[in-house]
Amino acid sequence: MAQKDKKTQLMRGTRTCGYGNAKKHRGAGSRGGRGLAGSKKHKWHWVSKNLPGHFGRSGFTRHESTIKRVSFLNIGDLDGLCEVWELEGKVKKAKGVLEVNLSSFGFDKLLGSGKVSGKYTVKVDSCSHRALEKIEALGGKVEVENKAEVVVDAVDLKGGVKEPSVEDSDEPGVSEAGDKVST
Fold first, then answer.
1. Long-range own/partner contacts, residues 141-144 (CB < 8 A, 24 or more apart)
2. Containing H/E element for 134?
3. Quick one: which of 176, 94, 182 has its CA closest to 140?
4. How far apart are CA 136 and CA 51, in angstroms?
5. Is residue 72 packed enough to be buried (19+ CB in 10 Å), middle (13-18) or exposed (0-12)?
6. Strands 92-94, 97-101: parallel, antiparallel or unpaired by DSSP?
7. pLDDT score for 156
8. Residue closest to 130 by CA, chosen among 174, 74, 180, 88
9. Which CATH number fits domain 72-149: 3.30.420.40, 3.30.390.50, 3.100.10.10, 3.40.720.10?
10. Residue 143 in contact with residue 137, Cβ under 8 Å?
11. pLDDT tens digit string along 80-130?
């Protein structure tokens, strides 16, 4: 818009700039209050159109003491980081096996996403089952400080423990609990 087309420019020289009586365009009363005043009354239409979700609550905030922040490392990032740490002298190599203490680097958990190419002896607070399998498949070792954190296959996705089935037992027709099962 050109400067000369603006209403304020066009109305220069007139006493009230197009607002009629001088008392009609004075203070916050002419705009229905300052800011969001009247947003639940006479400005409700504007608020509901332009500020959806302004009123009310959604969700909740947990107390900071109940939130545990877990710093994790994917196994695919281990090779690149260990190369850097080895050059800096922070990781020892003994008999072709890199010894890494992830807890000292600030990592709490080792996850199994990605591929790993070297042999590692990893010390960490907790570890996923896939990460454990991948490192042990290459001849490495994982030393978990918190044994309860290792995920076991016997737990299904719903959080319950699987019931022993006939296929899981060593003897045909007998469950692990010792009950006879008819086949």
1. 142/110
2. helix 129-137
3. 94
4. 55
5. middle
6. antiparallel
7. 43
8. 74
9. 3.100.10.10
10. no
11. 999 999 999 899 888 889 999 999 999 999 999 999 988 999 999 999 999
Average pLDDT over the chain reads: 81
The residue type at 81? L
Helix (H, G, I), strand (E, B) or coil at 32: coil
**37-74: per-residue pLDDT in tens?**
999 999 999 999 999 989 988 889 899 999 888 899 99
Q: How many CB atoms lie within 10 A of CB 75?
A: 22
Number of neighbouring beta carbons within 10 Å of residue 113: 14
Residue 2: pLDDT band by 50, 70, 90 thresholds? confident
* Partners of residue 94 on adjacent β-strands: 97
Tokens representing 120 are 């590692």
What distance lies between CA 56 and its chain's CA centroid? Answer: 25
The two tokens of residue 46 are 């504007």
Question: Maximum distance among all alpha carbons in the chain?
Answer: 104
pTM: 0.50
